[in-house]
Specification:
Layout: E1 2-6, H1 10-27, E2 33-37, H2 40-48, E3 55-59, E4 61-62, E5 65-66, H3 67-76, E6 83-87, H4 93-98, E7 103-106, H5 111-131, E8 132-137, E9 140-145, E10 149-155, E11 158-163, E12 168-171, H6 175-182, E13 188-191, E14 195-198, E15 202-205, E16 209-212, E17 217-219, H7 225-237
Parallel strand pairs: 1-2, 1-3, 3-6, 6-7
Antiparallel strand pairs: 4-5, 8-9, 10-11, 10-14, 11-12, 13-14, 15-16, 16-17
């Protein structure tokens, strides 16, 4: 697990790093790697250059920059990992919670409250990690949350994967190879020889076609409707 801490005060960076190390050793958690940043731009540059983080700990005031703005930039990059805010005031708490903030902790840190927040963040990060898949696309290796896939379609030895944010990924592999990866997560159905559908994104299901939430329609091959309907409703009930 990798934790990014962003604060413009070296003292806070050292204090938070110390508490993470202490809690990890005391509770025998899996090894936690900590990286510190003293500006929002440095953290964002690290992310844009391919760095992956499981948990973010952000100060609300990072010099002249706002941690809440940094959190929005992180979310804009399709990163769903937990964010913990540190601050001397709860004035900006509403903006923090807009980004799905896990905890809002007041400085100086109360160790027990901080440790509890780290434990909850680790649980969330582990759940996200289990959904994370890595695919070699035409733009290089990309890590995506499997749940964010809407569907994939096969063309000429490539799989074209459409994400919820409309991004399209081109992957050179067979339908069977991609389905073997996605089937490790609940909610995926192989439809004929060309399509893999994320059942979470089915808006409507008729006897002849699927309507997804992005209004894409996909024809149902002959003889597949009964099986698809059964799998879909079982998934919904779960």
């Amino acid at each position: 697990m990798r934790i990014a801490i962003c604060d413009d005060e070296t003292k806070i960076l050292d204090e938070v790093s110390y508490h993470i190390k202490k809690h990890s050793e005391k509770s025998r958690k899996s090894e936690l790697e900590v990286m510190t940043f003293n500006s929002a731009s440095l953290l964002l540059n690290s992310i844009d250059n391919g760095a992956l983080f499981d948990i973010f700990i952000l100060d609300v005031y990072i010099g002249e920059e706002m941690g809440t703005t940094l959190a929005k930039e992180i979310r804009a990059r399709e990163i769903e990992n937990p964010i913990i805010f540190l601050t001397t005031s709860i004035e900006h708490a509403p903006q923090g919670y807009e980004t799905g903030t896990l905890r809002y902790l007041i400085k100086p840190l109360e160790p027990e409250k901080f440790y509890e927040a780290i434990d909850v963040a680790l649980l969330q990060a582990e759940k996200l990690q289990s959904k994370l898949i890595r695919l070699k696309t035409e733009n290089g290796i990309e890590s995506i949350n499997a749940n964010n896939i809407m569907y994939s379609e096969a063309h000429d030895h490539y799989q074209y994967i459409t994400l919820e944010n409309t991004q399209l990924l081109k992957v050179r592999m067979t339908v069977s190879e991609l389905y073997a990866i996605l089937a490790k997560n609940d909610g995926f159905f192989r439809l004929g020889s060309a399509y893999i559908i994320n059942l979470r994104n089915i808006k409507n299901l008729t006897s002849s076609e699927i309507l997804l939430y992005n209004n894409k329609t996909i024809p149902i091959p002959r003889g597949k409707h009964a099986e698809l309907k059964k799998v879909f409703w079982n998934f919904q009930c779960e």
